[in-house]
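Section 5: illustrative case.
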């Protein structure tokens, strides 16, 4: 991937002196990942499990009960474990990647691709007479009816809460030991199991048929693959991953995101993931570099200052 030109456009991973995929938790190993997972589950489940025990059901367009504070659990866990394994420099790097937006236009196009998928889905829905009303995009689980803009803001914050953990922390750590493809697959069951209490509380999840659980995990695996490609290609932008994640949720998890719209958007993301997987496997067979990893991230002259502490 060609450099964007100025040092400010190289991405916070490059400026921190760590190569793409090495980020704040680079040498911490699987011990740090285990602590992160325990904390992420603990923070999130401390909110959602009491709701499940009380038999509360989270509905679209209703502000209580709500699961939304639980979405911040992975981010809080990432910040705490980063401070432990990488100190202040690691936390600064993590925060920089949360707001990093200076990436090439093609990666902004990839970030906003769920909007294109949604447009295609709405066109198909209109053709078959299943078009949702505009106001339906303003109804989301655990939120009062806020309108499209209000829902979009809250959904983006929730996506940042998740992506700071899954892509901002876990993915760079795993890519120290594994290929991007393997790292994506390892994150998938961790990400899926984190959702378990939601199947007891969120109305849309409670209605899943047994076979739907397999489809849910498969869909998360496809999303994980796309987000790994986006994270690495955008030079470590957690913001890019959160925007993609948030737009996908608006397209599929609001009151409008059901029926034809949800089916079309989900199918397009699955097709995108399978296409990336096919390219990745072909690159492996031919000995070429990974399609899922950024091809060029310059090293900083200030690398020594950003090195995280090593733990055994």
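Designed sequence:
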């Amino acid at each position: 991937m060609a450099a964007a030109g100025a040092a400010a456009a190289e991405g916070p991973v490059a400026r921190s002196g760590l190569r793409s995929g090495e980020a704040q938790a680079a040498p911490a190993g699987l011990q740090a990942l285990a602590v992160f997972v325990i904390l992420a589950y603990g923070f999130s489940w401390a909110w959602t499990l009491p709701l499940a025990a009380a038999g509360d059901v989270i509905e679209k367009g209703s502000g209580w009960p709500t699961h939304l504070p639980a979405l911040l659990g992975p981010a809080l866990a990432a910040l705490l474990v980063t401070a432990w394994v990488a100190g202040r420099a690691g936390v600064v790097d993590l925060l920089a990647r949360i707001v990093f937006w200076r990436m090439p236009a093609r990666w902004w196009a990839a970030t906003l691709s769920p909007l294109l998928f949604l447009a295609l889905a709405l066109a198909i829905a209109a053709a078959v007479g299943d078009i949702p009303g505009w106001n339906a995009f303003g109804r989301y689980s655990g939120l009062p009816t806020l309108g499209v803009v209000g829902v979009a803001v809250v959904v983006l914050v929730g996506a940042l809460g998740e992506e700071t953990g899954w892509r901002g922390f876990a993915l760079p750590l795993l890519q120290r030991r594994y290929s991007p493809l393997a790292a994506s697959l390892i994150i998938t069951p961790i990400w899926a199991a984190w959702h378990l209490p939601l199947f007891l509380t969120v109305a849309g999840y409670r209605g899943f048929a047994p076979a739907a659980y397999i489809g849910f995990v498969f869909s998360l695996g496809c999303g994980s693959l796309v987000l790994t490609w986006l994270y690495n290609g955008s030079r470590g932008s957690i913001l890019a991953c959160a925007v993609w994640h948030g737009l996908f949720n608006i397209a599929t998890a609001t009151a409008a995101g059901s029926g034809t719209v949800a089916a079309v958007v989900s199918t397009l993301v699955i097709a995108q993931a399978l296409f990336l997987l096919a390219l990745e496997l072909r690159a492996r067979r031919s000995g070429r570099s990974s399609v899922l990893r950024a091809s060029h991230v310059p090293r900083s002259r200030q690398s020594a200052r950003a090195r995280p502490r090593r733990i055994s």
